[in-house]
Amino acid sequence: MSGRAALRAAAAVLCLAASATAGAATVLVEEGSALRWRRNASDPGIGLAWVQEGFDDSGWPQGVYGIGYETAPPGATGLIATAVASPAASVYTRARFTLADPSAVQALLLSADYDDGFAAWINGVEVYRSPQMPAGTPAWNTVAASHESSNGSSPSYGAAVDVTAAALPALHAGENVLAVGVWNAGATSSDLVLVPKLELGTPLRRGPYLQLGTPTGVVVRWRTSTAMDSRVLYGPSPGELSGSVTVPGARTEHVVALAGLTPGARYHYAIGSSAQVLAGGDGLHTFVTAPAAGTRRATRVWVLGDSGTADAGQRAVRDAYEGFAQGAVPDLWLMLGDNAYDDGTDDEYQAAVFDMYPGTLRASVLWPTLGNHDGRSASSASQSGVYYDVFTLPAQGEAGGMPSGTEAYYSFDHANIHFICLESFETDRSAAGAMMSWLEEDLASTSQDWIIAFWHHPPYSKGSHDSDTEIELIEMRAHALPILEAGGVDLVLAGHSHSYERSFLLDGHYGGSGTLTAAMIADGGDGRPGGDGAYSKPQLGPQPNQGAVYVVAGSSGQISGGPLNHPAMFVSLNELGSLALDVAGPALEARFVDGDGMVLDSFALCKGSDPMIEDAGDTLRLGPSPDAVSWTRPPGASSSDLYRGTLSGPFLYTHACLASGLAGESAIDGTIPPAGSALYYLAGGRSACGRGPLGTDSTGALLPAGSPCP
Predict the structure, then answer these.
(1) Which region holds residue 212: left if phi is over 0, alpha if psi is between -120 and 50, else beta?
(2) Closest listed residue to residue 334, CA positions, set 323, 321, 324, 345
(3) Where are the beta strands (DSSP E) in 597-677?
(4) Is the pLDDT confidence value at 20 over 50?
(5) Count of CB atoms within 10 A of residue 58's CB?
(6) Which residues pair with 653 in a beta bridge?
(7) E strands, 514-632, in order
């Protein structure tokens, strides 16, 4: 299309909106709260009298949480505000909190950062003991199973436990007592740590989170501690939630499908029951429906592999990506398996997924695959267990593609991309098996511009796992890859090895690493537009055996080294990180963002010869100040170039590139125009595969050829 670019001020500084966080619950006791305490290196002779509300603790020392000792620093020293002498078999603590009206308590939540085990009482009633504590009445020298604290500079409380049912009968108006004891795993233990947190909350225990997104619908899920019916309110703005879906009947696991939505449209929503709203109705609870299949719209995909460590490494990767994305939520995101260590239990999913990514979960649809650690608590054959309980996936082709009849493997469309998820751990991987037969049918059914496949076990790796010796990796390479490459796959993503490995553009390499030949490398360059050039394929859409890039992105929670010398790989890194994919028209760009927010690898893949970027049209807008300008990134572009021109007479232009490769759509320019002249600005789109036209200025004249942005 052509258009008149309304010309105003321009930019080297990008203006982006920062993400916000939801309001916190009412905290009663936490790090820094006052306490009285007793260290136990011998029997104090008080049994459990110390947990009672009326116990006289006036002779105990005063302090604040966290409490404990560390004899092998740094360890837990960052958590300890009140130091006790070592060694100690246990430490008893008592803290007080005030409630105005216990009948108004909806949920009382307890969590802790601790080493090794703990138990808690409210007004003499036991409300919780950690899994490390044995059954029975705890004595001063009870031995707990080993458990390490976060050893962080601030507490990592972990998943909160709802203690409402046990605590509510014991609560009363006025002052109440929380008694918490922490026990050691042995007399020679080097540390003992306790930092509890007690807070008032709502019955909302998990979510909301988005599943099974389509152009006209999405599934909203959440969990409550008490059973109630399910309701989602939705609409075009937080103040206009005119649509609603109610699912009758009391439950704690809530799954509500919204239908009849507009493709590519933004919605705001709130969740709860017919009696109350638990969350939402604000600027945080919002999503954009998927574009209609085939739409060439710029799409950002965030890819995490083996992320589920629930520790500082996982948090670093999350925070680094959010900084890289400058707060923008991805259009969708993928998890490549081992989403929750070590066993894929519900508690581990809470810590490694739901507590780790609440903002992304409520605003962007997550599409996972099952890893071997997830498989310890799930069965693909019966589609049962934690993984299948917490996710809603398209077994019947609800989101595009062929019905698979199982949530273990599936496909879906988003914009002009066809995604295929396979299950490489437990499902039959043979060439004649049901999964490979379905894969062949699914590939034959799609005409999307791009095909991206993902599963857990990588076909090529020399990281912490070896694709030459491990059966899952061998069989996926030998049986899935010939089908995928014949069907025109462009990119294959996997995890399992805790490293980052990225291949050349490959086709036909189905044996061990020693069988790779030059004929199997369709392009042996670096795939970088600023280096050897982007990888290329002759046309859009599925074309057989034109090459694919293979990425192992299994370092989103930990790194485990290995030889990292597979000959099919252009680059192999023992670095924490995640992958950002940008697809715009015929261009796919990928960046590996490490745990410090640095891009350590990038590549691009272009299909066809036309960059398919339209001009910026009439989208330049005056900002809130004279030197601010904003625009709409042209269709087909993944970023924008901004030009500034000077008009000193009718059609007498000089102009130059002001800023190139802008990810956002706004900028600031403090330039003062020369006397007797005016400044004009034009925006144009770009991708890894080329630039689009700049259109015309406000007089209707074409911007003359000049210095292009680099």
Answers:
(1) left
(2) 321
(3) 599-607, 621-622, 628-630, 639-647, 653-662, 666-668
(4) no
(5) 7
(6) 647
(7) 521-523, 535-537, 549-553, 569-573, 577-584, 587-594, 599-607, 621-622, 628-630
Residues 336, 627: Cα–Cα separation, whole Å: 44
Q: Which residues of 113-122 are buried (b: 16+ CB within 10 A; e: fewer)?
A: bbbbbbbbbb
Tell me the two tokens of residue 102: 């216990």
Q: Does 648 score more than 60 pLDDT?
A: no
Please state, as a whole number, how many other Cβ atoms lie within 10 Å of the Cβ of residue 39.
21
The mean-pLDDT minimum among 20-29, 33-42, 236-245, 411-420 falls in: 20-29
Q: What is the DSSP string of 496-510?
A: SSSSEEEE-EE-S--
253 pLDDT more than 50: yes
pTM: 0.80
Predicted local confidence at residue 631, as pLDDT: 78
Which of 245, 248, 249, 250 minimizes the C-alpha distance to 232? 245
CA distances for 309 relative to 178, 341, 374, 375, 487, angstroms: 31, 6, 12, 16, 35
Contact (Cβ atoms closer than 8 angstroms) between residue 549 and residue 491: yes
Residue labelled with tokens 């309304």? 6
Question: In this structure, are residues 95 and 34 in contact, taking their beta carbons and an 8 Å threshold?
Answer: yes
Cα-Cα end-to-end distance for the chain: 24
Residue type, 322: E
Q: To which residue do tokens 């019916």 refer?
A: 229
Tokens 């999307």 label which residue?
448
Concatenating the DSSP letter of every residue in 332-346 gives EEEE-S--STTT--H
Q: Residue 195: which residues within 8 A CB-CB, separation 6 or more?
A: 30, 31, 65, 66, 67, 79, 112, 113, 114, 149, 155, 157
Q: Among 528, 637, 635, which residue's Cα sits nearest to residue 592?
A: 528
Q: Binning pLDDT at 50, 70 and 90, where does residue 698 land?
A: very low
The SS3 of residue 398 is: coil
Taking 3-state DSSP, the helix, strand and coil percentages for the chain, each rounded to the nearest 5, stand at 10, 40, 50
CB atoms under 10 Å from CB of 658, counted, come to 24
Rounded average pLDDT over 511-530: 97
- Annotate 105-169 with three-state secondary structure: CCEEEEEEEEECEEEEEECCEEEEECCCCCCCCCCCCCCCCCCCCCCCCCCCCCCCEECHHHHHH
- The answer to whether the beta carbons of residues 689 and 636 sit under 8 Å apart is no
Quote the CA–CA distance of 112 and 216 in Å, as a whole number.
Answer: 42
